[in-house]
Structure formats: C-alpha cells, structure tokens
C-alpha cells in the first residue's frame, strides 16, 4: 500500500467506481432489485481484493477498513439506479474507467502480495485474481458464464498479468515505487484498450464438435 | 458472542435449522442426492457466518468449533430426507423460523464484527452478509438466480440491515447486551413477516426493455 | 503435512494434475479460452485446499507457497490445450488419477485440520471439503449443476468421507503416520473405483413431481 501515492489512491477509487457500475448494470439487466444492485456492485468492486487479502492474511480486508470502499460502490449504485439508461449509454466511458481499474487492481494486488512475503509468480497470480476475481464472482452470482473466461471476449486477464508482471519485476529491480506502479498500470491500461479496439482475443483449444462426424470418421 | 444469552443461543440454532431445511428442500427440488442435500444445507446454514468469520479473522470459524453447527444441519437434512413432502407442507412454519434466523444472524453478525474492531457501517454490512450470504451461496450452487436479489422477492436484506443497524446503535449507546440484541432481532423478525404478509418489495431501477422502441425513438 | 512421505507428495501432485485436467476439459467443453482453461484448472485443483487452509488459518494457503501447485496445473492446461481430444480419449486414465486425488486430498485435508486443532468430526468435514470443493467450484464457475451433488453421479463424497474418517481414527490410535495415510487413501481410492464400476449412487429423497396427481389425490 505504501507504493500507492495519492494519485494512485484516486485511480484505485476510479477503478472501484467502474467495477461497481458494471455490477450494478448487470443487476439491472437481470431484473434484480436495489438490494441485488448493491450486492452485485459490492461483489464486483471488492470481491477480488477480499479474496487476495484473505489469502495473504491481511484481515480484515481493506474493503472493510477503508471507508471509500463502502461509499464509492454505494454512489455508483445510486447513480445507476436513478439513471441507468444514461449510464448504459456511457458504456465507452465506463470501459475506459474499467481499464484503469484493471491496471491498478492487478498492480496493487501483486505488490501487496509481495509485501506479504509471497513469491513473484504467486504475486502475479494474486494480482490477476484481484483484477478479474470480482468480475467472475459478479457473473457467477448473476448466473451468466463469466465474461472474462469466454472465447468471444477481448483480452482482459492478459493485460492484467502483464501489468502485474511488470510491477513485480520493477519491485525486484528496486525501482521507485510510485513510478514503477504507474508505468505497469499504464501498460496494462493501454494493452486492454488496444485489445478492445482491435478485438484481440486469447487463443482457445481447437475443438471438433460432437456430431460433426469429422472427428469420428 | 458474550451478547448471546442462552435464549439467543437457542434461537441461533433455530435459525440454523430453518436455513439448513431451506437448503435441503432446494436440493430435493433440484434432484440432488443425499450428499447434495448435506452440502446445500451446510452452505445455507453456515455459509454466511463462515464468510463473516474469515473476514474478521475469527478462525477457525464458529461453524467448525461449535458442535451444534454440525449436528443441527445434519438433523434438518435427515428430517427432510425422510419426510420432505411433510416439510414442504410446513412451508409457512419454516418461513417463520427462517425469519427468526434472519433476525438473529444479522444481529449476532453485526455485534461480532463490532467486537472484532470493525467500524459501525462495516459491522452492519457484515451482519447482512451473515444473514443473506448463505442463501445466496445456496442458490448459486443450485444454479438458480439468488432469491434475495430478485425483484419479485419480498424484503429480506432490508429487515436484516434494520436489525443490524439497531444492534449497532444499541451497542454504541451501551444498552444491556441481551436486551439490545433481543429487541433488534424482534424488529427484524417482525418487519420480515410483515414484508411477506403485505408483499413489500425493494425498489428496482425502471427499465425500458430493448426493442420496445420507446427508448430509442 | 509431516504425514506426507515423499510417495504421498508425489501422489498429491498426481491428484492436482488430474483435477486440473478435469477443469481444463470442462473449460474446452464450455468454449472458454486459454484464460478460462487456466482459471478452471486452478479452481478445480486448488479450490478445495484453499478453502480448507483459510478455515484452519493456514495462510497463505499451500497453493500459494508450494511451487508445484502452480507448475502442475499449468502443465495440465498446456497438455489439454494442445491435445485435448487425446486427453478426452484418456478419460478412463484421468478417472483413475482423479480417484487418487480424491483419496489423497480427503486424507491430507483431514489430517491437516486435526494438526490445526479441529475436532475429529470437523476434520472429516474439512477432508471432504478439500476433496470435493474444487469440483463444486469448477462446476459453479462453468455454470453447470455440480456433478458431485447430482443424483445421477456415482459416489464421490462418500469414499472421500470414508478415507477421511479412517485417517482421523488412525491418527487418534496413534498409528504410524505414513501407513495410516496410505491405507486410508487406498480405501477411498478403491471404493471410488468400485462405485464407478458398479454405478453405486447415494440415496436421494423420493420425490413425487408436481402435477403427477398421485400426491394430490
């Protein structure tokens, strides 16, 4: 956490806002009520970080000690509640804010894991968990196949892994904490937006469907 | 825990019984076997409390130290196994017991969170998590949209939040522990039953469905 | 963990490999991409153990400290990625390796819980959670009803409970640690394979479907 300069702390709350908004929008789409919006927004924005903190033994998790982590999702839900059609139309802006959150969560998650004594590979894994865990939980609770795992989704975990890896390498090279985090975050952010723009996707196993015959001939 | 007088401890096990029964009934409805009944009953009755205890760092969670938390769900499953049609017909009685559990879990969860040093808002959140977490996990494992989040369900999280809030306020005012918990529980219980009786529901975002034209004109 | 002789450690990684492979295959079947394969493989192989370690307070969980728990699932995913049709054809072999994992995870889980001071019944429960938790999480994330809970699945949790119970009894009788674990594991393994061979299933509540009339007459 000491690596987070005030600028990074603001970006962190920007990410929380974007993640919470995406949770609230899914709740509206699934015909959930205001309680459902609050639960999905909280799970999306805070779920990945809570899992990370439980794993590294940082209890209570930051989600339950920093007031911003309660206030910002509540604001996101209220905004979405009163103006969700407007929020949906701002989809592109939310996508950009979400990419900020993706970059920051993966970097902050990896650095916090290192600070708690985890190895570099495990720190990268936890950085990715921080960044994508909330979205997976959101989709599981909403009863949808997790977007981040599907083959028709643009790269999401890959820029997160990239940002987390850069942050871990920079930490090992003892680069300046703030700059190291900022650069790693920026790379994750840019790669994510490029992936959306150019429809970059992760590879998938080539699959011969049952009943197509070719496989069975 | 010290706030729980013997009466409250009995009510706690009543709540565990009701929650476990609801899990076992969902398992029967989904064509799960006896193992599925045990898993769903355990998840429903104990899931919320386990999450709370992990978050506040009370490990092992009470679910793994108090024998009653193993015995009571097992009894609920056996009863449901041999006589689930009878149990389903007692739906109204289970609903009342469930409301006892709702009130007690939210109050006990909030007070336990306070005792572990969490702030008042976070304590209310954890009280609600204790009360509704198990039911959400039950529905997610069973592959159903969580009842508590849907717009066609009567208020459930709201009476839980109300009871937890009263308990936290009473704790701050240093009221007698037992009476404070009993009154907060009773309010949650009554509001829940009123919500069921009069079909009170949480508000939801007004939604214009895609393709209705009005929104796009 | 001290109960695990080198042989048992190898069997542990065999189990991790089998569980990870089953997760990767489900990911292919659900049209997930490489990220989805990694997530499902990791969740299946490590999810049960992570939950166990969080509950007993062994943080960071072994999944984040032992390099083999990162390397083996990654290898399983790569193999499945390049040759998943071959892997699917080896279904019977994977089933046998999975039964090794089932026996070992339940025994190791129960013994680790005992070593952390849990009671014998709770240790058996945690052994079963270690063995079946990952598969349940796999199916929940993939959006399928958990195989282990369905009535059309062969016994899976029952041999796990049997192996865990034997391990706990042996521990209480102060039998030799290595032999005690090996025998309990072997019993779980054999009972699981017999259950598959002879289609042994857990009982389920007899259910009269709504609308069949018989129940209502």
Automatic annotation (TrEMBL), chains A, B, C:
Chief localisation class: membrane
Q: Which residues form a coiled coil?
A: none
* GO CC term, one of those recorded: plasma membrane
Per the record, membrane topology reads:
Multi-pass membrane protein
Q: Which residue range or ranges hold the Glycine transporter domain?
A: 10-84, 96-169
Listed A to Z, the keywords are: Cell membrane, Membrane, Transmembrane, Transmembrane helix
Q: Name one Pfam family in it.
A: Gly_transporter
Which residue spans traverse the membrane?
Answer: 6-28, 35-56, 68-87, 94-115, 121-141, 153-169, 181-200
Family membership noted in the UniProt record: Belongs to the UPF0126 family.
Full protein name: Putative membrane protein YeiH
Q: What species is this protein from?
A: Pseudonocardia kunmingensis
